[in-house]
Design brief:
heterodimer, A: mainly alpha, two-stranded antiparallel sheet, 15 helices, 3% strand, globular, B: mainly alpha
C-alpha cells in the first residue's frame, strides 16, 4: 500500500551528556552547509564567503575584539531569554525591551540634571533595566490578566518601541549638534561606559553580562524559584498540582528577561554610540538573534556565554562579507533562521531516537537508524 | 468633501490595502483550523513579494508572478509542516525561524531589484453591470482581479469549512486529532494540506504587495503585516468572514496612517497605530472568547502522534 518510508520518533529516557554538547555544534555545522547551498544558488562562492567570515571574526585582534563587543548584548539578552524559555514563556520582544532600555538610559544621560558624575552610569543602568522590565510587563500583564498569548503581544511591543525611538530621534530628542542626523546629542563623559584600550569592548557591561549568566545558572539550579521555573516549563500540569503559581512565574521571568535586555540597550548607547540613534543604528536585531543564542545554548545560561561569542563572531564576519561581497544586511537573518531551524532539528536528536521505517513486503522489521549509526 | 465622502474614500482605499492581510489571514485561519500555528507568515509573505517582483520583471507576466509567489510560499510552508507535524518540534520557534529565513533570503535575492520600476501592473477591472451600482459599485467592483479573488475566497472557504465533509475533517483534526484518526481521517495529510494552503495564500498576499500595492521591491516591505495576520486570525475566531472584516479594518488604519501625516502628526507615532490596534484587537478578542466560549481549535499547537496518545 504505502511504500513511503515512515519517520518515527521514540522518546529517549535520558539524554547522554556528550550528545547535549555535540548536538549544538553539529547543528551549526549543518546549518552552515545549508547556507552554503543557498549562497551557491544566489551566485555567491560559499568558500570565499566563509573564509571572509572566519578571518573577519577571529582572524585578527580587531576582529576578536569586535566579536566580544557584539557578544555583550547577545549574552545579556540571551541569558534572560534562556530563563524565560525554560518556563515556556515566549518573550519574543527582547529587541523592543533593549530599545526601551537604551531610551531610558539616554533620558538619564541627557535630560536628568543634578546626578553626581560617579552615579550617572549606575543610574543609567538602573533606568535601563527598569525600563526594559516595565516594557516586558505589557505582554506579561496581558497574559496574566486576559490570557493573551505573549508571543504576538511581545512582538508588537518591538514595533511600538522601535517607532517610539524613531519619534524621539527624528523629533523632540534630535540633537542640534548632529548635522541633521536622526541622533540625540552626544552623551557627556560621565555617561560613557569605559572601554578596554582602543577596542570597543565596554567591559563593565561585559562583567554584568557574565555575572548575569552565572547568577541565572545558580537561580535555575539552586533556588526554589528556579525549580518552579523548570517544573513549570517541563511539566505545567505537575506544577499546577504542586500549587505553583504559573502566572507569577511568567511575570517574573518576563521582568527578568526584560531587565537584562534593557541593560543590553544601555550598553549599546552608553558603551558604543554615546547617543541614541534610529533603531537599526542601535541594534541590528540583537534581541532576535539572542533567541538563537539561547536555543543554541540549550537554554543553559552558562552555555549562553559560549554561544553569544560564537554568534557574535558570525555577526562580525557577516559585516565583513557584506562589505567584501556586496551582500545586503538582511544576510544576517538568513544565518539566524537557518541556524535556528537546525538547532531545533538537532534538539530532536537529544530528546528522541529517530527511526525510519521502510515498509517491506515480507517482514515488518523496522530498520533502525539511530543517531550513533547515522553519524 | 463631506464626511461621508471622506469615509467612503478611506473605505475604498482600505480594500486594496487590506487585501494582503486578507490572503494571509484566510491561509492562517485554515492552517490553524487543522491545529498548526505557523508564525512564519511574515517570512512567507516577504518571499512571495520578492518572487513575484522578480518573476514579473523577468517575464512581464503578472499571472506567472503570482503563481510563482504562491509556489514559493507553499514550499516554505512545507518546511514548517515537516518540522512541526512530522518532527514535532516547537511550532513557535520553527515559525520564527521561517520568518528570519524569509527575511534573509528575500533581502539577498531582492538587492538587484531595489529601485527598479515595475514592468507589469495589475490594472483595475471594473465588473460590467455591478460597477455601475451607486456607492457599492465604486467601493467593491472597480478593483483588480486579486481583490475579487480574495473576496470570493471568503464565502468559498466558509462553505468548505462548514458545509462539506472536507471541512468537518479539517476542523475535527484541529479539535481532537485522536478522535479524527479513529474515525479514519488522515491527520497528517489534512494538516500538511492546511499548512500548505496557508503558505500559498501568504505567498499571494506578498505578491499583491510588490506587484500591485507598492508596486516595487523594498527590503523588508512586509513590515510586520505577517504578524498582524497572526493576530487577525485570533480576532477572526478562526472564521473566514470575520477575517474579512479584520483585514479591511486594518486596511483602513493603513490608509488613515498615510492621510493623517498630512495633518502634521509625526509619522513614527502613526506607524505605531496598526501595532497598538493589534494589541487592542487581541484584548477585545480575548474578552469575547471568554464570554462566548468560542475559543481556538482545541488541539492548536499540539503535535499529534499515534504512539503517545
Amino acid at each position: 500500500m504505502n511504500a513511503l518510508p515512515r519517520i518515527r520518533l521514540e522518546k529517549r529516557l535520558a539524554t547522554p551528556r556528550w550528545l547535549g554538547v555535540a548536538t549544538p555544534i553539529l547543528s551549526v555545522l549543518a546549518a552552515l552547509l545549508a547556507i552554503a547551498v543557498i549562497f551557491r544558488l544566489l551566485g555567491v562562492n560559499p568558500l570565499v564567503a566563509y573564509g571572509r567570515i572566519f578571518t573577519g571574526a577571529f582572524g585578527s585582534l580587531y576582529g576578536l575584539s569586535e566579536t566580544v563587543t557584539k557578544a555583550i548584548p547577545l549574552m545579556l539578552a540571551g541569558v534572560g531569554l534562556a530563563v524565560a524559555f525554560r518556563a515556556r514563556v515566549y518573550n519574543i520582544g527582547a529587541e523592543g525591551q533593549l530599545l526601551i532600555g537604551a531610551t531610558c538610559a539616554t533620558g538619564v544621560a541627557l535630560f536628568v540634571p543634578g546626578i553626581p558624575d560617579g552615579l550617572r552610569l549606575p543610574a543609567m543602568f538602573v533606568a535601563g533595566a527598569l525600563g526594559g522590565a516595565l516594557w516586558a510587563m505589557i505582554p506579561a500583564l496581558l497574559k496574566a490578566r486576559l490570557r493573551i498569548d505573549e508571543v504576538l503581544t511581545s512582538l508588537m511591543t518591538v514595533y511600538i518601541a522601535s517607532e517610539l525611538v524613531n519619534h524621539l530621534v527624528y523629533g523632540p530628542w534630535k540633537g542640534p549638534g548632529e548635522w541633521g542626523f536622526p541622533y540625540t546629542d552626544k552623551f557627556p563623559l560621565a555617561a560613557q561606559i569605559p572601554r578596554i584600550g582602543i577596542t570597543r569592548i565596554h567591559y563593565p557591561t561585559l562583567i554584568l553580562a557574565l555575572l548575569a549568566a552565572v547568577l541565572a545558572y545558580i537561580l535555575l539550579q539552586r533556588t526554589r524559584w528556579g525549580f518552579e521555573i523548570r517544573v513549570t516549563g517541563e511539566n505545567p500540569e505537575a506544577a499546577r498540582y504542586a500549587g505553583m503559581n504559573y502566572l507569577r512565574t511568567a511575570m517574573l521571568v518576563m521582568a527578568l528577561s526584560g531587565a537584562l535586555a534593557g541593560i543590553a540597550g544601555v550598553g549599546e548607547v552608553a558603551g558604543i554610540h554615546y547617543r541614541l540613534r534610529y533603531p537599526q543604528g542601535i541594534s541590528p536585531g540583537y534581541g532576535f538573534t539572542a533567541i538563537i543564542v539561547a536555543w543554541l545554548a540549550r537554554l543553559n545560561p552558562l552555555g549562553v556565554i559560549l554561544t553569544s561569542l560564537l554568534i557574535g563572531g558570525l555577526l562580525v564576519g557577516g559585516d565583513a562579507i557584506q562589505l567584501a561581497l556586496g551582500l545586503p544586511s538582511a544576510t544576517v537573518y538568513l544565518f539566524n533562521g537557518m541556524i535556528l531551524f537546525f538547532v531545533l532539528g538537532g534538539d530532536l536528536f537529544t530528546r528522541y531516537r529517530i527511526r525510519i521505517e521502510i515498509p517491506s513486503r515480507a517482514a515488518a522489521t523496522p530498520v533502525r537508524l539511530e543517531r550513533e549509526e547515522a553519524l | 468633501m463631506s464626511v461621508w465622502a471622506y469615509i467612503f474614500s478611506v473605505l475604498r482605499a482600505a480594500i486594496p490595502a487590506g487585501t494582503p492581510l486578507l490572503y494571509g489571514t484566510l491561509g492562517e485561519v485554515t492552517a490553524e483550523r487543522s491545529g498548526v500555528v505557523n508564525l512564519g507568515v511574515e517570512g512567507m509573505m516577504i518571499m512571495g513579494a520578492v518572487t513575484a517582483f522578480g518573476v514579473a520583471q523577468a517575464t512581464g507576466n503578472a499571472f506567472l508572478a503570482v503563481a510563482a509567489a504562491a509556489l514559493v510560499g507553499g514550499i516554505l510552508a512545507l518546511i514548517h509542516a515537516f518540522a512541526s507535524i512530522t518532527l514535532r518540534v516547537n511550532q513557535v520557534v520553527s515559525g520564527l525561524a521561517l520568518t528570519m529565513l524569509g527575511q534573509g533570503i528575500s533581502g539577498m535575492i531582492g538587492k538587484q531589484f531595489i529601485g527598479m520600476p515595475p514592468r507589469v501592473q495589475l490594472k483595475p477591472v471594473p465588473i460590467p453591470g455591478l460597477s455601475d451600482l451607486p456607492v457599492l459599485g465604486p467601493l467593491l467592483f472597480q478593483h483588480d482581479l486579486l481583490v475579487y479573488i480574495g473576496l470570493l475566497m471568503v464565502p468559498v472557504l466558509w462553505f468548505l469549512f462548514y458545509r462539506t465533509r472536507w471541512g468537518i475533517n479539517l476542523r475535527s483534526v484541529g479539535e481532537s486529532p485522536a478522535t479524527a484518526d479513529a474515525m479514519g481521517v488522515n491527520v497528517f495529510q489534512v494538516r500538511y494540506l492546511a499548512v500548505l494552503f496557508g503558505g500559498l495564500m501568504a505567498g499571494i498576499g506578498g505578491a499583491y504587495l510588490s506587484i500591485v500595492y507598492a508596486p516595487a521591491w523594498i527590503e523588508g516591505m512586509t513590515a510586520g503585516i505577517g504578524w498582524i495576520v497572526i493576530a487577525l486570525t485570533i480576532f477572526a475566531m478562526w472564521d473566514p468572514v470575520r477575517g474579512l472584516l479584520g483585514a479591511y479594518l486594518f486596511g483602513s488604519v493603513r490608509v488613515l496612517q498615510y492621510r493623517l501625516q498630512g495633518l502634521g502628526i509625526s509619522p513614527p507615532l502613526l506607524n505605531m497605530l496598526p501595532f497598538i490596534l493589534t494589541i487592542l484587537v487581541l484584548m477585545f478578542s480575548a474578552g469575547e472568547a471568554m464570554r462566548k466560549r468560542l475559543g481556538a481549535p482545541a488541539a492548536l499547537m499540539q503535535p499529534y502522534t499515534r504512539e503517545e496518545r
